[in-house]
Amino acid sequence: MRLSWNEIRARAATFARDWAGEGYEKGQTQLFYRDFFDVFGMPVRRVATFEEPVKNLGDKRGFIDLFWKGVLLVEQKSVGLDLKKAKAQALNYFPGLKDADLPRYVLLSDFKSFELYDLEEDEQVVFPLSELPRHVEKFGFILGVQKRSFKDQDPVNIEASELVGKLHDALKDSGYSGHDLEQFLVRIVFCLFADDTGIFEPRGIFLDLLETRTREDGSDLGGWLTQLFQVLNTSEEERSRNLDSDLARFPYVNGDLFRDALRIPSFDSGMRQRLLDTCHFDWSLISPAIFGALFQSVMNKQERRALGAHYTTEKNILKVICPLFLDDLRAEFTRLKARRDSRRMPELLAFQEKLGRLRFLDPACGCGNFLIIAYRELRALEIDVLREVRPKGQYDALADLLSMINVDQFYGIEIGEFPVRIAEVALWMMDHIMNNRLSLEFGETYVRIPLRKSPHILHADALEVDWASHLPPDQCSYVFGNPPFIGAKYQSLEQRAQVRRIAALSKSGGTLDYVTAWFIAAGKYVQRGNAKIGFVATNSITQGEQVAQLWPVIFDRCKVEIAFAHRTFAWGSDARGKAHVHVVIIGLAKGADAPKDKRLFSYDDINGEPHESIHAVLTPSTFSMPAA
Question: CA–CA separation, 312 vs 370, rounded Å?
Fold first, then answer.
């Protein structure tokens, strides 16, 4: 089991005492780092190598003192030697490394002091050996706990996508397909993520099981996976006392992910190797928001087009959720934090409770990208609140009570069964990442395994079900998302009939884009509550004949008004077979709930950055015009 941060700090203090006064590079480096990694309960041989050969500048051959591919490079010196030269020496190794092996962290030490550089966050920390207990959280990456940066088009996500694609193709070529293949892949990727981020402890046990306990020809691999899935779905007290010791190390996951029995594929040596290749990739580096795109990239392209399944960049998702709710919540927090009266603390605590009561609905959620990013941002805001309301020194005792936000606040509706499961798993993945961040911030391990709460993702056609039966409107705070982009000419007969029925415009409703049905359905839904709406749409709904058909329904029948909008800009997709369309973003609210100052985001270049202006009233004609 993973050590608590209190145990790690105690071990760090012992390590600092034991190594005080030592410091000969050639004779003691390896022993020093074996003891150092043992502080975290991690055998160094599991993840790193000593004296790794590499060509440095000038094609000279050098040796990295300790190297953990993709994570950590250590340059060690004897006591008293110049660490500036050590840093230059460490960076000289970079040109000789493969891109995939470039480390995020560089650690320099002369036994009596440490300099740790986080190259991704551009942060550094310098401290003497005696202060290691105060800084152990900075080494959380040894446990798979680290700050996460999320970047659109990150190469690691592309590499992960290719690995999953190759595994998918190998399985499908063997005759394994359909529902079982989709569910199997979701489970495998969860296991890969869990193995690299600390859900499975010790880290790497999934890879160890496959490498050391299964035959090279793959003949018994399916059986081992079947047993593993059963174990992950069984609480420790209900497991057999004769359970294999390697399987017994895995935790109870729950969350319905491993509940149903699957037909397991019959592996051969090539398929086994494909699976091992995916295991050797560092899955702690991927963004759960990309998780859906990974699987969309192996879906049938025609099916993806028909469903309007366009993966959305995080940058564009933020263009929806920031003006819809995040900007207001952060502004409220800033005001409360600035208070200096006796009500400051009670108001901050009440604000945190408010965050835990919010409910979010994406009625065309696909693989959950909007829900995942919204969850991440809400948890990040809560962490900022916790810094203000939890006195220092009380974090350990209150660890189990820290977060009031959980995945069960997030609701989705999705017509495809496979994306439903992906959305659920990706939200759990993001939950684990944010729990790790909480651990780093407050110095105590914070985990939610087994999974006690689940996101509410309904497998259904959103235009054929009553949203209120899934989430009562009076409980919903925000409705948002990226409904399908399908013009009237490209709609199936069924889809066209749905639009006509929902718009109630007789035959003329058939000229409306498919996305308009979500606008109207959402407008009707919020009438029974106070939720606000933020949707992406093709800019055609603000131009031409659609304006006269759609907007009287929105304004007069649904009784909502435009609260914010983005003028036309290019909406990119990171999925294979990219979708590039011109879109608008429109926020709607009931008159009483709409802000007095309406925000309009304009673009001088449709591929550029927006600039904001304030308006008393927004209409489609306001933002369908060319940018100023």
Answer: 8
| Calpha distance 333→47 (Å, rounded) | 41
Query: Which residues share a beta bridge with 533?
Result: 479, 588
pLDDT band at 311 (very low <50, low <70, confident <90, very high): low
Task: Retrieve residue 518's tokens.
Answer: 């979500």
Q: For residue 31, what are the contacts with CB-CB under 8 A and spacing of at least 6?
A: none
Secondary structure of 500-541 in the HEC alphabet? Answer: HHHHCCHHHHHHCCCHHHHHHHHHHHHCCCCCEEEEEEEHHH
Domain 316-419+430-624: CATH architecture, name and number where available: 3-Layer(aba) Sandwich (3.40)
- For the ranges 57-61, 218-222, 390-394, 543-547, which has the lowest average pLDDT? 390-394
Cβ–Cβ under 8 Å, residues 364 and 484:
yes
**Angstrom distance (rounded) from CA 423 to CA 11:** 39
Query: Identity (one letter) of the amino acid at 391?
Result: P
Do strands 532-538 and 113-118 pair parallel, antiparallel, or not at all (unpaired)?
unpaired
Could you write out the three-class secondary structure of 541-575?
Answer: HHCCHHHHHHHHHHHHHCCEEEEEEEEEEEECCCC
The answer to whether the CB of 378 falls within 8 A of the CB of 386 is no
Alpha-carbon span 284 to 68, nearest angstrom: 14
CA atoms within 13 A on the CB side of 513: 24
18, HSE (Cβ side, Cα atoms, 13 Å) = 13
Residues 6+ apart with CB under 8 A from 435: 403, 446, 447, 448
> How many whole angstroms separate alpha carbon 446 and alpha carbon 439?
5
* pTM over cut 0.85: no
C-alpha closest to that of 315 among 456, 160, 156, 154: 154
Give 293's Cβ-side CA count (13 Å radius).
31
> In this predicted model, what pLDDT tens digit does every residue of 122-153 receive, in sequence order?
889 999 999 998 888 889 888 877 665 555 55
Contact 373, 289 (CB under 8 A): yes
24: pLDDT strictly greater than 50:
yes
Compare 202 and 572 and report the one with higher pLDDT: 202
For residues 38-45, give the mean pLDDT. Answer: 90
| 441, pLDDT greater than 80 | no
pLDDT digits (tens, 9 = 90+) for 326-338: 999 999 999 999 9
* Residue 155 amino acid letter: P
Alpha-carbon distances, residue 541 vs 103, 551, 602 (angstroms):
47, 9, 17
Are the CB atoms for 271 and 218 separated by under 8 Å? yes
Quote the CA–CA distance of 183 and 163 in Å, as a whole number: 17
Q: Are 266 and 174 in contact (CB under 8 A)?
A: yes
Instruction: Give the residue extent of every domain in the chain.
Output: 5-143, 155-286, 316-419+430-624
Residue tagged 């973003």 (tokens): 585
* Phi, psi (deg, nearest 5) at residue 445: -65, 125
Radius of gyration for the chain, computed over Cα atoms and rounded to the nearest angstrom? 27
Residue 408's contacts (CB-CB under 8 Å, 6 or more residues apart) are 453, 454, 455, 456
| DSSP designation for 77 | -
Specify the CATH number for 5-143; select among 3.90.1570.30, 2.30.30.100, 3.50.50.60, 3.40.640.10.
3.90.1570.30
Residue labelled with tokens 């058909």? 549
Distance CA 561, CA 12 (A): 59
Cα–Cα distance, 565 to 622 (Å, whole number): 9
